[in-house]
Specification:
This protein is an all-alpha fold. It is 71% helix and 0% strand. The chain has a domain of 194 residues: MetI-like fold, CATH 1.10.3720.10. Keywords: Cell membrane, Membrane, Transmembrane, Transmembrane helix, Transport. It comes from Oceanobacillus jordanicus.
C-alpha cells in the first residue's frame, strides 16, 4: 500500500513538473555567464601590470598579477572623492525624495482640499515629460539661484518624483478606511496619522521607491555633467569618463578605476539583493 502511494506521488510530481525546466535553467546559466564574464574580465585586467599587452585574449587571465594599479589609482586620482560624492548625493537625494513624495502622496490620498484631483493629474502629466526636455529651464533656475557647481545644485533638482507620489498615493488609498476614521475620532492629528499609522503600513512601497531613487541618482550622468564644473565635485558617472579619456590607448588603469567604482556597487547588490528584487516585483519596473 505504501509503495502504491509513493508511486502515485511520483506520478503527480511528474505531471506538475515544468517540462521546460531544464531549458529555463540552461538559458538562465547562459545569461548569467554573459553578465558575469565582463565583470570577471575587468577584475583580471585590473590586476595586470600597467602597460601589459596581449596577443591572445586568454593571456588576460594568466599571471603576472599585481595590485600596484589600485594603489596608483587611489593615490594619484580623485576616484575615492568621486565615490564619496556619488554616495552622498544619492543618499541625500533618496532621503529627501522619500520625505517629500510620502507627504505629498498622503495629502492627496487622505486630506480634503480644493483642486486635489487636478494636482494628482498634474503629477501624472509629469510622467509624460522626458527629463531631457526640462534640462534647459532647470539649468537656468539653478544658475539664477547660484547653485551651479555645488552639492545643493546636484541634489535639489532631483528630489521631485512624480512616479513616487503616484505609487505611494495608490498605496495610501488602500489603507482601510476604518483605521483612518478610528484614529481621527480618537483625536489623532494628520501628522500622527501619517507618521504612526499610514507610513509604517507603506514600508514595501517606501523601500521600492528608495531603492530605485538611489540607483537612479547613482547612475545619473547628464545633470551632474552639466551642473558641475569642479573636478572635486564630480560623481562617478562623470569622473570615470574624464579619467578614462586620458588613457584611450590603455586597458589596465581604466579597468582598475572601473573595478574600484564597481566593487562597492557589487557588494551593495549582494547585501540588498532581496530588497532590490522585491522592489522590482512591487513596482512592476523592468530593467
Amino acid at each position: 500500500m505504501a509503495a502504491k502511494t509513493t508511486s502515485n506521488s511520483r506520478r503527480a510530481l511528474d505531471r506538475n513538473r515544468d517540462p521546460f525546466l531544464k531549458g529555463k535553467i540552461t538559458i538562465g546559466i547562459v545569461v548569467s555567464i554573459l553578465f558575469i564574464a565582463p565583470i570577471i574580465w575587468m577584475l583580471f585586467v585590473s590586476i595586470k601590470p600597467d602597460g601589459f599587452s596581449t596577443s591572445t585574449p586568454i593571456e588576460w587571465f594568466l599571471p603576472p598579477y599585481t595590485i600596484s594599479n589600485y594603489i596608483t589609482i587611489i593615490m594619484d586620482s580623485l576616484i575615492l572623492r568621486w565615490l564619496f560624492n556619488s554616495f552622498f548625493v544619492a543618499f541625500v537625494t533618496t532621503i529627501l525624495t522619500l520625505i517629500i513624495t510620502s507627504l505629498a502622496a498622503f495629502a492627496i490620498s487622505q486630506m480634503k482640499f480644493r483642486f486635489k484631483n487636478f494636482i494628482f493629474i498634474f503629477f501624472l502629466l509629469g510622467l509624460m515629460i522626458p527629463g531631457e526636455a526640462t534640462i534647459i529651464p532647470l539649468y537656468e533656475i539653478v544658475k539664477n539661484m547660484n547653485l551651479i557647481d555645488s552639492y545643493s545644485g546636484l541634489i535639489l533638482p532631483m528630489i521631485a518624483s512624480p512616479l513616487g507620489v503616484i505609487i505611494l498615493k495608490s498605496f495610501f488609498d488602500n489603507v482601510p478606511k476604518e483605521i483612518i476614521e478610528s484614529a481621527i475620532i480618537d483625536g489623532c492629528s494628520y501628522f500622527k496619522l501619517f507618521y504612526k499609522i499610514v507610513l509604517p503600513l507603506a514600508k514595501p512601497a517606501i523601500a521600492a521607491i528608495g531603492i530605485f531613487t538611489f540607483i537612479g541618482s547613482w547612475n545619473n550622468f547628464l545633470w551632474p555633467y552639466l551642473s558641475i564644473l569642479s573636478e572635486t565635485l564630480y560623481t562617478l558617472p562623470v569622473g570615470l569618463p574624464v579619467f578614462n579619456s586620458t588613457y584611450s590607448q590603455a586597458y589596465v588603469l581604466p579597468m582598475t578605476a572601473n573595478a574600484i567604482a564597481s566593487i562597492p556597487v557589487i557588494i551593495a547588490f549582494l547585501l540588498f539583493e532581496k530588497q532590490i528584487v522585491k522592489g522590482i516585483s512591487f513596482t512592476g519596473i523592468k530593467g
